[in-house]
C-alpha cells in the first residue's frame, strides 16, 4: 500500500463500515423492533413474519438462553417487556455480560471449550423453569456460542470427556453443523432436550443465526427444536476426520446407540430468527452506496476451507477494473480451519494472513476479516487487517510470515505488525464478515 496516512484512511473506512453494519443487527435493536405487547397479546412482527403470541394474565414469563450475544437480546427484552418478566437466567461467554440487566440474571462460562461454570449455570437455568404450567411462557434466547455455554453432559459422559471431544472437533476442520451434530448426542439439553424441562409452558425461541445453512436444529445445537435425524451420523462425522479412536470409549458407546425418540413438549412452540449474515450483507450494501462505493458480493454465503475463501477474495480484489474503483467486496459466513500447528489465532486472522501473502506487491487493495461477535477463536481480537505490505512489516519485526502461517500463529504475527482488529463484545453474532476494498 501507499504511505501510512493512506493505510490509516483505508482501515478507518473498513472499520466504520463494519461497525455501522453490525449496529443494524445488535440484539437489543432487533428485539425492541418486534413491537411491545398489548394487554394479553403480543403481536411479534419481524420482516416478513408475524406471530400472535398470547400472554395469560395469570401466567409467568421466564427468560432463559445462552450465547455470546444473549445479553444484548436480553437487554432488548427487558426494555420491551419490563416487569412482565417474572424470572430469567442466561449464560454468556466470559467478558460478554451486558451491564444493567435488572430481571434476567447473567452467568458467565467458558467458550469454546465447555467448563464447570457452564455446568453450574445450566443447572441454575433449568431450575428457573421448574413447575411451569400451560399459562406460562418461556422465552429462549440463543446466539452463537450457546452450544459450548449450555452444558449438561448426557448420562455416562463427564465434562472432561465432552471438553476433549469439543477440542478435537474444533481443531479438525469440521464444519459447525458437523460439530453440533455430535454435541447434540452428548447433551441432555441440546437437540430438543431443553423441552423436557419446561413442563406444559409455551416456548418462544428468539435466535441469531451463526450457522451457514440457517438450520434451526443446529443454531445453539437446537435445544428447543424437536430432534430429527441428521444427514450424517455422529460416528460417521468422527470417522470423516479420523477421530474415532481419539475420543474416549464412553463417547463412542453413546454415539453408536440408537437416537432417542423425539421430544414433544405440551405447549405451543415457535422459533424466530432475528438476524443472519444475509441481513448484515444487506446493511453493508446500503452503507457502501451512501459512501459512493461500487459494491460486489464475492461470497454472501461463505463456507468451506478458510484458505480457499481467502484466495477467492484476493483474486476478486485484483480483478476489479480501474473504472470500477473504489470498490467494496463483501463475503459473509463461516469457513472451516484445520489447526495443525502450535500457534495462536482464529479463522479470521488466518484468512487475513493468507490474503496478505496472496496480495504481496499489490498496492491498491486491502481487507478486514473479522468475527461479528468481536472474538476470533481463542483470542481477544475480532480479526485482522490485510494488505500487500505485510511482508515488509513482518520483516521489520524479524518474523517469517510463511513459517507462522504453517504454525497457525497468525495472532502473534499480527500482534507484532499492528494488524490485529479489536472491538470487544459487539452485541451480535451472525458469523464472519470480510470487507475488501480495491482503490
Automatic annotation (TrEMBL):
TM regions (residue ranges): none
Taxonomy, superkingdom: Bacteria
A GO term, aspect molecular function: glycerate kinase activity
Xref: SUPFAM superfamilies: GckA/TtuD-like
Domain MOFRL-associated: 14-255
MOFRL domain span: 328-432
Descriptive protein name: MOFRL domain protein
Amino acid at each position: 500500500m501507499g504511505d501510512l496516512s493512506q493505510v490509516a484512511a483505508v482501515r478507518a473506512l473498513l472499520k466504520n463500515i463494519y461497525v455501522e453494519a453490525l449496529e443494524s443487527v445488535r440484539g437489543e435493536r432487533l428485539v425492541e423492533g418486534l413491537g411491545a405487547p398489548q394487554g394479553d397479546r403480543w403481536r411479534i412482527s419481524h420482516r416478513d413474519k408475524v406471530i400472535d403470541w398470547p400472554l395469560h394474565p395469570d401466567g409467568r414469563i421466564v427468560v432463559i438462553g445462552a450465547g455470546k450475544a444473549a445479553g444484548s437480546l436480553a437487554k432488548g427484552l427487558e426494555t420491551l417487556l419490563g416487569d412482565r418478566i417474572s424470572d430469567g437466567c442466561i449464560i454468556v461467554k466470559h467478558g460478554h455480560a451486558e451491564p444493567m440487566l435488572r430481571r434476567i440474571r447473567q452467568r458467565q462460562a467458558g467458550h469454546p471449550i465447555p467448563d464447570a461454570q457452564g455446568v453450574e449455570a445450566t443447572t441454575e437455568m433449568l431450575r428457573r423453569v421448574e413447575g411451569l404450567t400451560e399459562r406460562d411462557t418461556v422465552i429462549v434466547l440463543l446466539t452463537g456460542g450457546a452450544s459450548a455455554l449450555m452444558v449438561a453432559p448426557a448420562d455416562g459422559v463427564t465434562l472432561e470427556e465432552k471438553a476433549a471431544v469439543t477440542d478435537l472437533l474444533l481443531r479438525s476442520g469440521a464444519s459447525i453443523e458437523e460439530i453440533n451434530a455430535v454435541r447434540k448426542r452428548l447433551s441432555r439439553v441440546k437437540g430438543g432436550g431443553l423441552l423436557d424441562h419446561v413442563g406444559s409452558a409455551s416456548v418462544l425461541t428468539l435466535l441469531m443465526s451463526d450457522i451457514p445453512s440457517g438450520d434451526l436444529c443446529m443454531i445453539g445445537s437446537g435445544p428447543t427444536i424437536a430432534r430429527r435425524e441428521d444427514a450424517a451420523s455422529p460416528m460417521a462425522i468422527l470417522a470423516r476426520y479420523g477421530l474415532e479412536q481419539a475420543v474416549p470409549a464412553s463417547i463412542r458407546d453413546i454415539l453408536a446407540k440408537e437416537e432417542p425418540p423425539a421430544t414433544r413438549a405440551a405447549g405451543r412452540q415457535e422459533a424466530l430468527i432475528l438476524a443472519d449474515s444475509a441481513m448484515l450483507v444487506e446493511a453493508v450494501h446500503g452503507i457502501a452506496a451512501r459512501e459512493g462505493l461500487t459494491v460486489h458480493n464475492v461470497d454472501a454465503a461463505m463456507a468451506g476451507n478458510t484458505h480457499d475463501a481467502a484466495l477467492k477474495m484476493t483474486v476478486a480484489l485484483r480483478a476489479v477494473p480501474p473504472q470500477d474503483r473504489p470498490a467494496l467486496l463483501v463475503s459473509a459466513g463461516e469457513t472451516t480451519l484445520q489447526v495443525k500447528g502450535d500457534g495462536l489465532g482464529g479463522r479470521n486472522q488466518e484468512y487475513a494472513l493468507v490474503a496478505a501473502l496472496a496480495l504481496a506487491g499489490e498496492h491498491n487493495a486491502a481487507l478486514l476479516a473479522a468475527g461479528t461477535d468481536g472474538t476470533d477463536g481463542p483470542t481477544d481480537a475480532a480479526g485482522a487487517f490485510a494488505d500487500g505490505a505485510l511482508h515488509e512489516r513482518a520483516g521489520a519485526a524479524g518474523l517469517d510470515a510463511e513459517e507462522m502461517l504453517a504454525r497457525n500463529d497468525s495472532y502473534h504475527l499480527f500482534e507484532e505488525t499492528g494488524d490485529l482488529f479489536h472491538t470487544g463484545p459487539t452485541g451480535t453474532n451472525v458469523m464472519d464478515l470480510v470487507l475488501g476494498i480495491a482503490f
